[in-house]
């Protein structure tokens, strides 16, 4: 079980991925993202998750260079935006992301959303980049079971990670079981449902019992469910607080109660109806 920010899960290709990291969705390019990433690394985070569409890859890259931590000790993820899907356009978009990040290689590259008809050729480009040694692990984001089945019916390398919206209101049990069975690591974006869960009475009760915050209880629930989690924050005290989840354990009863909060409700788009960037 996860005991520190250095704890990893081993992906099906043998690469070790940290179980806990910092997400930078909606963190502004420039000083805000630079300070946020540097604060995280200073306080022991080794995993940083960005995306082309976030518009802050340059700041993330600068923060990495200024952090004083060697590149090899960090795990950096970025994502391919929808409008760049397709074989040649993916290869080009990858180069653009790498230039912005200022990195020689990437730890994890994800297809941001499935869309309808291009993810298979996009994945072929991912396989090429992986085989060329430019990326240590490749995966997808927001893929449902049917997308994964379709992709796996023709791919040479199956995805190592599937990053999806995952929190107590959206427990995705069927998807989680499918990913486990196929050795695809599930990763949670928006683990706190963009703050919407922080006033939940059940979670508050469990948090009080453990002398923790609701956010800490949710993030601990992720870890105990073997889901990688990447909460976002721009404030150093919150970045430290989010990671203070390694000194307590939820009981099976706690976990059951949290699982029972599921409503299949999302803060973000449904993968089957997400069309932005695909038009």
TrEMBL record:
GO terms for molecular function: oxidoreductase activity, acting on the CH-OH group of donors, NAD or NADP as acceptor. Pfam families: Aldo_ket_red (PF00248). InterPro entries: AKR, AKR5G, Aldo/ket_reductase_CS, NAD(P)_OxRdtase_dom_sf, NADP_OxRdtase_dom. It comes from the Bacteria. Keywords: NADP, Oxidoreductase. The active site is at 54 (proton donor). Residues 29-262 form the NADP-dependent oxidoreductase domain. SUPFAM superfamilies: NAD(P)-linked oxidoreductase. The record marks 79 as: Lowers pKa of active site Tyr. Substrate binds at residue 112. Residues 260-279 are annotated as: Disordered. Belongs to the aldo/keto reductase family. This is Aldo/keto reductase.
């Amino acid at each position: 079980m996860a005991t520190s920010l250095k704890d990893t899960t081993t992906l099906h290709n043998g690469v070790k991925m940290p179980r806990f990291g910092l997400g930078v969705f909606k963190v502004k390019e420039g000083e805000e993202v630079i300070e946020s990433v540097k604060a995280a690394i200073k306080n022991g985070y080794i995993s940083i998750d960005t995306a082309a569409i976030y518009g802050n890859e340059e700041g993330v890259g600068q923060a990495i260079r200024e952090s004083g931590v060697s590149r090899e000790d960090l795990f950096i993820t970025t994502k391919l935006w929808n409008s760049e899907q397709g074989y040649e356009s993916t290869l080009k978009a990858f180069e653009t992301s790498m230039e912005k990040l200022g990195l020689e290689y990437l730890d994890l590259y994800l297809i941001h959303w499935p869309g309808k008809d291009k993810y298979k050729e996009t994945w072929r480009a991912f396989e090429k980049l992986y085989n060329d040694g430019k990326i240590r692990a490749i995966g997808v984001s927001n893929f449902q079971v049917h997308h994964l089945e379709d992709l796996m019916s023709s791919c040479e390398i199956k995805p190592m990670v599937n990053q999806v919206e995952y929190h107590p209101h959206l427990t995705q049990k069927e998807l989680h079981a499918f990913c486990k069975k196929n050795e695809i690591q599930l990763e949670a974006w928006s683990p706190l449902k963009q703050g919407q869960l922080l006033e939940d009475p059940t979670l508050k009760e469990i948090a009080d019992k453990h002398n923790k915050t609701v956010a800490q209880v949710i993030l601990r629930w992720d870890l105990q469910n073997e889901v990688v989690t990447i909460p976002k924050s721009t404030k150093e005290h919150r970045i430290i607080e989010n990671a203070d989840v390694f000194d307590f354990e939820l009981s099976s009863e706690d976990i059951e109660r949290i699982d029972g909060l599921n409503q299949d409700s999302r803060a973000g788009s449904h993968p089957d109806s997400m069309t932005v960037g695909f038009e």
